[in-house]
Structures are given as C-alpha cells and as structure tokens.
Amino acid sequence: MSEKRKKDDGRMWTGAAEPQRRLLATSEAPNSDDVRRAVAAADQDLSELARPFTTEPTQETLSQSTGS
Amino acid sequence: MLSAKKFRVHVFGTGDPLADLPQTSQVQYLRCYLEDLGAEAVIEEPHYFDRDYLAEFGAFYSTSATGYLNVCRRLHFFGVPCSRQQFIHALRGGNRLLKRLKDAYLGFAVLRPIPGAPLGRTVLRWYPESRPSNPRMMAPSRTYLAHVAGIPFEVEGLAWQQQDTGVGACATVALWSMLHASAFDEHHAIPTTASITRSAHKTAALGARVFPSSGLSLFQVLEAIKETGLAPLIVEGDTEAAFPFTGSTAPMRGFTRGRFGASCGTLIRSGYTALLVGKGVGLGAHAICAVGFRPGSGAPVARSGEVALDDGNIELVYVHDDNIGPGMRCRVVEPKPGGPVVLYPEPPKTNSHLRTTPNPCANYHPFVPATLVAAVHNEVRLSSDTLSRHALSVSVLLSKLLTLRSGGTSPGLTVGTRFVRLRDYLGEELSSPLSGNARALGKARVELCERVRPMSLHLGLIRIAVGGTPIADVLVDTTDSKSNMAAFAFVSFNQDISRCVRSLQSSAPAALVDRGLGVLVEAH
Question: Which tens digit of pLDDT belongs to each residue from A2-56?
C-alpha cells in the first residue's frame, strides 16, 4: 500500500518538513508565564472545538434499521 | 452435468452480456462507468464458480423450487479492442498482445444465475486521476488478481455486489465490501454475505428470520463485525435539523461537516472503510459503504492561534451503494451552517458525450448519514473521536503558545489523524517528512525504539502541520481505555516546535505533558 499511499495522500501526509522554518519571533524558548497563558487560552477554545467529537450513540441509534 | 463451453469475446456495447441483463440502475451504472473507463472488449468466462455465490447457493438458492444453477459467468473488461483470435494468441503467454491486455484490464463482474440480482462480486479500476494536485484518497482499495485460463490479470479497487435480498440486504453488502478493505490484508479471511448475515443473527436475531434477509439493525451490524474477529467503532452524528426538501418537518440526525470529514478521513486514510447508516431522501433507511474521498482544494489554512482539521472540508466522498454500483461519487454539502451534511450523487463528466445510457446516479436520492460504523482491528481500542479530541487539545495548545511568542504573527496549525502500524510508521510514514534528512531520520528511528517505552502494534497518529508542511507527529497508545489514554512520543520536525515542547515539559502540568505529549524526539 505504501506507493499508493504516497501517491494519494498529498499535502501534509507526504510533504517534507522544514526544520529551520521560524515559527517563533525569537530563538528564546517560551517561559513558564507563556505556557500558563497558552494552557488557559487553549482550554477556552477546546470545549467548543472538541464538542462535536463527544457525541455518543444512544440505544435508539443502535436499534435503528439500516434499510433493506 | 454442465457441458464445456468456449470463452466468448464481445465488443463492449449493445451486443455484450451486460446488454442481455434487465436494465436496472446497477447495470446502467456499470455501463456508464465502463464507458468512462474506455471499455472496448469483454471476455466472458462461461463457467465460473464464485465463492460468494456458492455460499449464497448453499444458504438459500439450493433449496428453492426454481432450480438455480450453482455456477456463474464472469465478465472481464478491457480498454483495448480484442477478438477471440487475439485472445487465444495472448494465452500463449509472454507476448506483446498479452501485455497490452494486462495493461488495459479494467476489472471484472461475476454474473449470478439470479434474474432479480445478477451482479455478483464486481471489481472495477478507479477512474483515472483528473486532479493530481489534489488526489482522491482511496487507501482501503486493494489489488485483486483474476485468473483467466491461468493468466493473472490485476485490478486495484474494492469489491461491490448487488444485494439479492435472499441472503443479504444493503447493510450486509456494505459490510461485505467493508471487510475487503486493505487494512485487513494480512490477518482476516473475507467472509461471504451468507456468513455475514448468519453472524448478524447469531446473538441479535430478535425473532427475525435469517433468510431471506429483510435488513439488519445497527445492533446486528455491530455483532456481525465482532463475529469476524474485528471490533466495531461507531461514530454518532452530532447535530440535527429539519430539511424542508424531504417533505418532512421532523428533524433529521446527522453530522456537521467538520466531524463527518475528520471521521471519514481518519478511517479511510487508515485503510478502513466507513459504513454510513442514515436516510436516503425519498428512500428511507439505508446503508452504504464509503471507500474513498477527495479532500477540499488546498491545505486548510488556520489563522494565528487557531487550528483547522485537515479533512474537515472534504469535497467528495466515493461510496459503494448496492442500489447503484461501486465508487459512486457524492458531493458533501452542508445545506445550512451547522449541518447535517447531505451527500448528493454527482456523476463525473468524463466521456459523457459517449454515453449510450443515462447515468442513474444523476437522479439518485441524496443521502443524510446519521451514524458511521467501521470495523477496526481488535487491538485498536482507541476511538477516532478520542484521537481527534487529543489531536485538537495538543495542536490548540501549541498554536496558542506559538501565537504568544510570535506576537500573533505565527501561522495557525492544521491537524489530521489516522491509525497506523508501528512498523509502517517507523518505515514509510516517518521517511516522508524527513525525506532528504537521512541523519534526522536515523536518529528518530533509534530514539523511538530506545528512548520510548514499548509501543503498541497500532498507533494513533496525530500529524500537525503549517499548511502542507508537517511540523510534528504525536504517537498515541491505541490499547488502553479512554481515561488512561496516553501518548508514547512527540516527534518534532521543527526546531521552534522542539523549543515549545521543552518549555511545556518544564512548566505545564505534569499530567498534560506525560500523558498528552510523551517523550520528545527531536527529528530535525
């Protein structure tokens, strides 16, 4: 499957990394205050973003017909 | 006793064996599909004992007063002209004509001696890729070998068949296609439709007779998956709305676009197919099998501090529908913001000027998927939902950290998930982002084996990217419960991401770091 996958996947699954690409403004690592603020900000966004992925099937779903 | 018969070679068209069948939507669809592939010749094997039909015969047709035969015919389709004389010449082997036929092989269809449902196991080559820059994702397809007089012909696709309602209904046939998926190449024999229906009734019959099969409940679908030694994974629609065009004001359950795309993407990229259970508008309850998709054009781009799901905007999904045929193309449409999504059949325009019959999927029922079911390896206990939630939590945190340290100038992140075997990850998967960086690749492989605790056979793989450029992989254990879920390793492909993760390791809550990120492997 590997060759097919390489051909089909496209984009980020087959692209090459750019290790030197700058994503931070400086070479200085984030400090503990940055981390604390990032964790708090992430928590706020996550509940909304992840909500669709929390739906569980009900008994009603499981007993539904799949057609004939 | 059956008497010997000759191979017959036909010109594809009005005089071929498809033309002799009742012109149902399935036969018309196959005709259109083969026209689009450029079919020119049909070689007919007059006697073919088909494993699936023999099981159906044993379970049902052998005891019918009609006196059905137990032997089928098999049609092989070629994209070049061929006469009987040329075919006989090709069978000598090793000649140019044989190579030409092999290269032009488009697939096969078994014709059962059942007048109401003649199309048995059918495998056709996919359409040629028309958009190489944004290709279809068809990882569940596999290579089938069809031997004609001992000569092997290869076709890559995924088996489809028409439901016969004696041994299998739509869910049975969709499940049967599902279990052909490439993810199961190594360990699982593919059950016949007869054994799938029996398995579905083994523990969840609820008084219904087994044969003729009038359809399965979702419970029975899940039980049938378990009986094959696999594990069912179920994803429930997350929204509902009324669709006035259905003629009903009752709300219909379904999926938001992002969740539908992300769930299909995770499974199909892993080589699994997805059974979609829902309602055909004007048709009622129905089950179809999603075998591939085409992502939205261009890599999703998120704003600084935000995260986009890589497959959250898939454009087309390809489904096997027993009412139509293999690989029916459907456009994913969200009629109203917030869903649910509707799949609208949309035949491709390729070669349509040559059409001799209208493509039935042009007027086929739109479908609203409400529940998605997959059969996954028993060892995979992690659900696609749990993996997606974890992917979002890690990537949102990284995105926020990047934004804070770049003054809002850093790009947003894209995240995608899939399941992958450990050996495949260490092999081909890891070599893609590190192509051209052999030193980092070797270092990452060694560190993943020597610094990380023993990893599971199947991994939950989270890939984080900036646009189409990968920046990190998170490898998640698939063998534990939801509450104990933990990452094995965080493989960083970028020096700034490594800095961020080191900061998280020293300052973020220990639980988040240990279970959420795992061991940092710097692969750059």
Answer: 444 444 445 789 889 999 999 988 878 899 999 999 999 999 999 889 999 988 8
User: pLDDT tens digits, residue range B479-518?
Assistant: 998 888 999 999 999 999 999 999 999 988 888 888 899 9
Q: Which of residues 132-171 of B touch A (CB under 8 A)?
A: 133-139, 141, 156, 165, 169-171
Q: For residue A67, give the nearest of B136, B171, B389 by CB distance.
A: B171
- Greatest pairwise CA separation for chain A in angstroms: 63
Q: What angle do CA B326, B154, B40 make, to 5 degrees?
A: 70
According to the 3-state scheme, what is the secondary structure of B351-401? CHHHCCCCCHHHHCCCEEEEEEEEEECCCCCCCHHHHHHHHHHHHHHHHHH
Assigned token pair, B54: 């023999």
> Which candidate, B128, B11, B26, places its Cα nearest to that of B75?
B11
Global confidence as pTM: 0.94
Phi-psi region of B369 (alpha: psi -120 to 50; beta: other; left: phi over 0): beta
Beta-carbon count within 10 A of B250 CB: 8
Spatial CB neighbours of B114, under 8 Å, sequence gap ≥ 6: B61, B68, B164, B166
Residues B290, B276 contacting (CB under 8 angstroms)? yes
Pinpoint the alpha helices (H) of B91-144.
96-103
Q: How would you class B3 by CB atoms within 10 Å of its CB: exposed for 0-12, middle for 13-18, buried for 19 or more?
A: exposed
Strands, E, within B215-314: which ranges? Answer: 231-236, 239-241, 252-254, 274-280, 284-294, 307-309
Cβ of residue B185 closer than 8 Å to a chain A Cβ: yes
B401 touches chain A (CB under 8 A): yes
Check CB contact under 8 Å for B470 and A38: no
Q: How far apart are CA A47 and CA A49, in angstroms?
A: 6
